[in-house]
UniProtKB/TrEMBL annotation:
Record-stated family: Belongs to the FlgD family.
TM regions (residue ranges): none
Source species, domain of life: Bacteria
UniProt keyword Ligase present: no
One GO term (biological process): bacterial-type flagellum organization
Positions of the FlgD Tudor-like domain: 91-225
Statement: the UniProt record of this protein carries the keyword Ribonucleoprotein: no
InterPro entries listed in its UniProt record: FlgD, FlgD/Vpr_Ig-like, FLgD_Tudor
Protein species of origin: Echinimonas agarilytica
Sequence ranges assigned to domain FlgD/Vpr Ig-like in this UniProt record: 125-181
Protein name in UniProt: Basal-body rod modification protein FlgD
Record keywords: Bacterial flagellum biogenesis, Cell projection, Cilium, Flagellum
């Protein structure tokens, strides 16, 4: 003879998950989430089957409702932030995409010669005498020296036409830009920035800042661009 050890309790039965085909759950996420309707249904069941000699205190009930409202509010806020990030990312991607094919000024001491040479700027905090810009290949060999002369504090443009000391065109590739001059009688090395062509735009999966892929120079973030020029 078998003994039925199951105990029927309406409250416990109401908490059991329906595993029949009639259960209308589409995803695991829906199974694990507690909606506001589910919460109040459980609260009603709790009140209906509470011990009459130990009823739920009003403060405890309010605490439960407050906790649920807070959790629900945080969930909605997270969803709104996620949506906002997606919108900002899309807007940034659209803005960055307009730069494809254009030239941007980036803070770098290496430029890419695609046959037309390299141009850029030299930044000096103080007036500088005998400013020169030297173009070197990647092994340090001097390709050309451009004499600019005395300049005021600020930025000064330079252009290299892609030829060597003899005036012959050099191979395409990356070349190092070095700027030197005299300030207060001392030799100083100055910071430079070069123009580079934007080939494409990339966005990471983490919705971080857009990256501009530059011809021959790799990637740079959109916020690091100093200036946009015609391609």
């Amino acid at each position: 003879m078998s003994i039925d050890t199951s105990v029927s309790n309406p409250y416990l039965d109401s908490l059991r998950i329906d595993t029949s085909d009639s259960a209308k759950y589409e995803t695991e996420e829906e199974r694990s989430e507690l909606s506001q309707e589910d919460f109040f249904s459980l609260l009603t069941q709790q009140l209906a089957y509470q011990d009459p000699f130990k009823p739920v205190e009003n403060a405890e009930m309010i605490s439960q409702m407050t906790s649920f409202s807070t959790a629900e509010g945080i969930t909605k806020l997270n969803d709104q932030i996620t949506d906002m990030n997606a919108i900002m990312s899309s807007s940034q991607a659209l803005q960055a995409s307009t730069l494809v094919g254009q030239k941007v000024l980036v803070p770098a001491s290496t430029g890419h010669n695609d046959g037309d040479g390299i141009d850029g700027i030299v930044a000096a905090e103080l007036p500088t005498n005998a400013l020169t810009v030297t173009i070197e290949d990647e092994v340090g060999q001097v390709i050309k020296t451009i004499s600019i002369g005395d300049v005021a504090a600020g930025t000064t443009q330079f252009e290299w036409d892609g030829t060597d000391l003899a005036g012959n065109p050099v191979a395409e590739g990356n070349y190092v830009v070095k700027a030197n001059g005299f300030q207060d009688g001392k030799t100083v090395e100055l910071a430079s920035a070069v123009y580079a062509k934007v080939e494409s735009v990339s966005l990471s999966n983490s919705l971080s800042e857009a990256a501009l892929n530059l011809s021959g120079l790799g990637s740079i973030t959109l916020s690091d661009v100093l200036e946009v020029a015609e391609g």
